[in-house]
Every structure is written in structure tokens, then in C-alpha cells.
UniProtKB/TrEMBL annotation:
It comes from the Bacteria. Pfam families: Methyltransf_33. GO terms for molecular function: methyltransferase activity. This is Dimethylhistidine N-methyltransferase. Residues 18-317 form the Histidine-specific methyltransferase SAM-dependent domain. PANTHER family: ERGOTHIONEINE BIOSYNTHESIS PROTEIN 1. Gene3D superfamilies: Vaccinia Virus protein VP39 (3.40.50.150). It comes from Roseiterribacter gracilis.
Length: 318
């Protein structure tokens, strides 16, 4: 068994409360950072989203990754170590691990304790010879990675188009920080969702079964559970729209009535129809993303798309 004890840099209740108070104090547009969507239930609801007919990104990226994994493995070389940001259920990384020649370590970084524990335990049972290092952390804030010794290359792995959850300027700052953390010559394999028809995009974020709605509304239920708040979740509705000018899908929670909500002793007013902006999901063309990566100091080594041009994977090098 080579499963390390998790490196615990879990965000505190205080960090959560500060984000919620600040985000709901903004008079023009209330916001909540999307990272707080991923508590134990939120991570499971997200897993359910990935199985929906309308949610094309996961199955498209997974199939593409399966196709190109041998090519990646050739470039990464023997004894590479994978550092994955937002490891989630750990489905995609298996495709990489299977293709790589004797990978030396797998560092899994995730904000959800349960998702991280379950995924790394399951993987440790399958791959008894692989060093696995779980890191419980919010990677949008400064966090420490374990020292990565050994001779192989470092291969950062950031799938799912999670980079799209950052605004472009923040994405560049994050990619710059990641390049410094992964070190000289490191590779980064990153999934980026492509721009496409409004209908396809809006359906992917507002499925008929209401799973995405539950995922979004769970944020309010979580605030009630963890921050002694009294949101009446029934008085909010899920909304997602494609913002063409910004090139992003936006998720909102709409207050269907005028109401007051108290969160750890502080009251917040909502007008009927007022929204909380809970997530952005930016979509990028291939060149557009390569330019962004370049301004963060990364060289574009290769880019692949599926046959229907729904999704892309980029290989970058520091
Ligand atoms: C995989 C985290 C990037 O933005 O598509 C899915 C999250 N939100 N449905 C995305 C999400 C609503 C997802 N990420």
C-alpha cells in the first residue's frame, strides 16, 4: 500500500463565511464562488451531471483522452509523476496512468474531503505499486505541493474545462502560478471546452432531469448546514444562460420572491427576481486558449479536438 496520509490544507468555515458574506453584500450583483459547490453532496451531484445526455464535456473529453493517451505517454516519458488539480472521482486519470510507462507518483488535489478520500482509496486498491499523495486543498488559493523527487517529468493534469470557471485574467494568473509550482520543463495537459451553439451549451447547464439545478441549489442548502443560515431553498430557482459577449455560460440562483435571509447572524435582502451569480464557464477557441497560455509563460506543444469539435485537450510545456 503506497497511499500517503492526506496533506490537509482544507479551507476553514471562516473562509467560507467570509466569501458568502462578501459575495452577498455586493449591491449590483450578488455572487458566490463556484468552488463552494463541492461539498460531499455537491461532488456527488456533479458526478451525476457527468452522466447526463445533455452534458457532453465529460464523455467527449474522456473518449479523446483515451485516444491520445499513448501520444502523451511518449512525450512525458518513463517515471512521470502526475499532479491533478480537482481530481474528483478520479475516472480520467486512470486513462493516463494506464498509458504512462511506470508512472512514479500521483498527486491528487481536491477541495472535497470525501471525494478525495474515496477516489484515492479506490485507486490505491487497484494500483498497489503507485505512490499516491492526496492533497486536500483549495487550489485557487496559495497551497503547498509535496516535494516531487525522482527522475521523471512532472505532468500537470487539469481536465474538465475547470479553467473555464476562472475569468480570463484570473485564468492567466492561475496558469502562471501553476507553472511556477510544477517547475522547469513540466508539462500541463489541460481540458478546454470549445465555443458552440447556444442551444447545446444552455441544455448542458440546464438538463431536463434537474440535476444541474439540484447541484446549484445545494450551495444554499450547504450554507444552511454549515453557516447557520435560513435560506428557504424552495424560494430560489436555477437559471443558466449563454453570455455571447463574454463567451461564457453563467449559472444563477433566482430569488422568486422578495425575502430576507440570515447567515450567521447577518441579514441579507433579496428582491423578487434578483439573482446570485454562482458560476461562470468560459469557452475558448484553440488559438484563443493558446494565446492565454502563452501569456502565462506556457509553450503550446500540441492540441487535440474530438471529431465534432466539442472539446479540446492542450499539451503545454513550461
Ligand atoms: C467541470 C467544473 C468545469 O463548468 O462545466 C457543470 C461544472 N457546472 N455543470 C463546468 C459544472 C454546471 C463544470 N466544471
Amino acid at each position: 500500500m503506497k497511499l500517503n496520509q492526506a496533506i490537509d490544507q482544507a479551507p476553514s468555515r471562516d473562509a467560507f463565511l467570509t466569501d458568502v458574506w462578501n459575495g452577498l453584500s455586493c449591491p449590483q450583483q450578488k455572487t458566490l464562488p463556484c468552488k463552494w459547490l463541492y461539498d460531499a453532496l455537491g461532488s456527488r451531484l456533479f458526478d451525476a451531471i457527468t452522466a447526463l445526455d445533455e452534458y457532453y464535456p465529460t464523455r467527449t473529453e474522456t473518449a479523446l483522452l483515451g485516444d491520445i493517451a499513448p501520444e502523451i505517454a511518449k512525450i512525458a516519458g518513463v517515471h512521470a509523476r502526475i499532479v491533478e488539480l480537482g481530481s474528483g472521482a478520479g475516472v480520467k486519470v486512470r486513462l493516463l496512468l494506464d498509458a504512462l510507462e511506470r508512472p512514479s507518483a500521483y498527486v491528487a488535489v481536491d477541495i472535497s474531503e470525501t471525494a478525495l478520500r474515496d477516489a484515492t482509496r479506490a485507486l490505491a486498491n487497484e494500483r498497489t505499486d503507485l505512490r499516491i499523495v492526496p492533497v486536500l486543498a483549495d487550489y485557487t488559493r496559495p497551497f503547498a505541493l509535496p516535494s516531487l523527487e525522482g527522475w521523471g517529468n512532472t505532468l500537470g493534469f487539469f481536465p474538465g474545462s475547470t479553467i473555464g470557471n476562472f475569468a480570463p485574467a484570473q485564468a492567466i494568473a492561475f496558469l502562471t502560478q501553476l507553472r511556477r509550482q510544477l517547475g522547469n520543463n513540466a508539462f500541463l495537459l489541460i481540458g478546454v471546452d470549445l465555443k458552440k451553439d447556444r442551444d447545446v451549451l444552455e441544455r448542458a447547464y440546464d438538463d431536463v432531469l434537474g440535476v444541474t439545478a439540484a447541484f446549484n441549489l445545494n450551495l444554499l442548502a450547504r450554507i444552511n448546514r454549515e453557516l447557520s443560515a435560513d435560506f428557504d431553498v424552495r424560494q430560489f430557482a436555477h437559471k443558466s444562460i449563454w453570455n455571447e459577449a463574454q463567451g461564457r455560460i453563467e449559472m444563477h440562483l433566482v430569488s422568486t420572491v422578495a425575502q430576507t435571509v440570515t447567515i450567521d447572524g447577518r441579514a441579507f435582502e433579496f428582491r423578487a427576481g434578483e439573482t446570485i451569480h454562482t458560476e461562470n464557464s468560459y469557452k475558448y477557441g484553440i488559438d484563443q486558449f493558446q494565446r492565454m497560455a502563452a501569456s502565462a509563460g506556457w509553450q503550446a506543444r500540441a492540441a487535440w479536438t474530438d471529431g465534432a469539435d466539442l472539446f479540446s485537450l492542450h499539451l503545454l510545456q513550461a
